Amino acid sequence: MSLMAIYHLSVKTIGRAQGRSATAAAAYRAATRVEDERTGLVHDYSRKGGVLHREIVAPDDAPTWVQDRTRLWNAAELAETRKNSTVAREFEVALPGELKRDEQRRLACALAQEIAARHKCAVDVAIHAPSRRGDERNHHAHLLLTTRRLTADGFTEKTRELDDLKSGEVVRWRERWATLVNEHLAERGHEARVDHRSLTAQGEDREPTRHKGPAVTAIERRQERTFIAERMREDISERLRALAELGRLERESRRLESSILDTTTELKAALAERDRDAIRTRSLEDIRRDAQAAWLAARTSGGSSQPEQARDRERTLDLSGDLASARREARDQWLAHRPGAQRPESASLHENSIDKSPQRIILPDDDHAK
């Protein structure tokens, strides 16, 4: 009976319906920085460790810009227009611990090259090392696939054959991966082998476990991290980072809305002040025009047609000088204005220029002068 190496191959999709993006997935798996041109978010995982190798594999006739990770995944995002589009597909595989690092790299890239040749899509390969506190055999690779075929003109139709299990493509790749692993193990002189089949197909009598095999259960009993647990933690970490980015974006949006409201309020106040100034200015101009018109009318009419107010002005008699003379003048004025009295000759000489209203007598302040 040959030794059994760890076998794992899973196919997952990355879609906008789950709040995920191809740019974020590529940045996280390759531990690099990718700016999303569609959303403006910057996904920076350049400080993340544990990435042993990263490489982009593409069809032979693909354009050269595909080798630029940022351009590749931004183009993949922009090629999709629906809000729930699937923007990337991932093959996750376990690399045999029996192989050396360079041998693991060749094995992962061999699978990527076959996928790119068969489906005419780009494959972004990232090999991750085991966690420092986990199983040292847990070498694995993430193969991130574009969901559209690539030609010299760019992206074309979808690779829908990988969407449906009825097409048999996923089952075929599971089998093909087992064959590739066993070929590389044999070439390096290892006796260990992998088997993609179920326990029943392998002729095993033991009861299958849910989601975990016997080796995984034994590792968990030793309180060591499992392969499946590691993958779950990576997915959770990626989702948490995406939620943090969304939270930051929402906070910036709220601050921007508040700033816009403040600016709008200040603009309304400035416009209202401007209108008030305009009203005051117009009022002053109207007053000036009215005053100028009245002055012109008064000057044109001359002395014979003095304004009513000028004709009705009060005439005064100053008694602050010669008191006796003032009294005589006052008496003459009283007699002239008394009903039935004859006016003095001096009054008749000036009847056209003297107002008919009686004069108001101004007495001196000295009480003895009265």
Provide an overview of this structure.
- This protein is about 45% helix and about 15% strand.
- With about 375 residues, it is of the alpha+beta class.
- Among the domains are: about 10-205, BirA Bifunctional Protein, domain 2 (2-Layer Sandwich), CATH 3.30.930.30; about 310-370, no CATH class.
- The strands form four sheets. It has a five-stranded antiparallel beta sheet with strand order 1-5-7-6-4, with helices on both faces. A two-stranded antiparallel sheet has the order 2-3.
- Helix 3 (about 100-120) runs antiparallel to helix 4 (about 170-185).
- The relative contact order is 0.10.
- The model is unreliable at about 210-220, about 305, about 310-315, about 345-355 and about 365-370 (pLDDT under 50).
Query: How many angstroms separate the termini?
Result: 151 Å
CATH class of the domain at 9-204: Alpha Beta
**General shape:** rod-shaped
Q: What is the mean pLDDT? A: 79
CATH level 3 topology of the domain at 9-204: BirA Bifunctional Protein, domain 2
Q: Tell me the total number of β-strands.
A: 11
Radius of gyration: 51 Å
Q: Report strand %.
A: 15-25%
Lateral arrangement of strands in the main beta sheet: 1-5-7-6-4
